[in-house]
From TrEMBL:
Gene Ontology process terms (BP): proteasome regulatory particle assembly
Complex formation: Interacts with PSMC3. Part of a transient complex (modulator) containing PSMD9, PSMC6 and PSMC3 formed during the assembly of the 26S proteasome.
GO cellular component, one term: nucleus
Transmembrane segments: none
Official protein name in the record: 26S proteasome non-ATPase regulatory subunit 9
Database matches in InterPro entries: Nas2_N, PDZ, PDZ_6, PDZ_sf, PSMD9
Function: Acts as a chaperone during the assembly of the 26S proteasome, specifically of the base subcomplex of the PA700/19S regulatory complex (RC). During the base subcomplex assembly is part of an intermediate PSMD9:PSMC6:PSMC3 module, also known as modulator trimer complex; PSMD9 is released during the further base assembly process.
Limits of the PDZ domain: 81-173
Entry keywords, A to Z: Chaperone
Amino acid sequence: VTVSDVQQLVRRKDEIEAQIKACYELLEGQKGVGMHEPLVDAEGFPRADIDLYQVRTARHNIICLQNDHKALMKQVEEALHKLHAREKEKHARDEAEALAEAMSQNQSLPQAFAKVNAVSPGSPASVSGLQVDDEIVEFGSVNVSNFQNLQNIATVVQHSEGRPLSVTVIRGGRRVHVGLTPKRWAGKGLLG
C-alpha cells in the first residue's frame, strides 16, 4: 500500500459522495420527497405530483452508493493502518540501526586517558595538528592501560626530543593519528 493508493481510494470516496449528493438533490427536486416519504397518496394510489420512477431509482442508487461508500471507507481505513504500520516499522528499524551503529562506533573507539585543554600557536603541538578538546588515546608508548599521571607523558616527551612521536586522539567521534615531534621553540616546554 502506497500513499498514491490511499489518495486514489479517497478520490473514489469523493466521487461516490458527490453521486449520493446528486441523488439527494434529485429527491429534493421531487417535492421534497426524501428517503422515507410515502410514494402513495392518502387513498393508496401512486402520487401523481412526482416522477415515481425517478424517485425509486434515486433511492435505490443512494442505498447502493452508501453501501459502496461504507466498503470503500473500510478499505481506506485498512490502507491507512497498513501505511502507518509500515512507517512505524521503518522508523523503529532505522532507530535500531542508528543505535547499533552508534554502539559499534563506541565499542571500536579506544578509551582516552587525557584531554587537550590548550594548544599554543606556533608550538610543536600546533604544527603537528593537535587541537583543543582532542582526547588522547595513545601518546608514544603511553596508553590507557599504563597511564598513571601526566609525568608519564613528560618522561616520553623528554626522551623523544627531536624524534617523531605517534599520537592517537579521538576528534569528533573519530580516531585521528598525529605525528608530533617534541622540540625546543620560542615558548615554554617541548610541546606547547
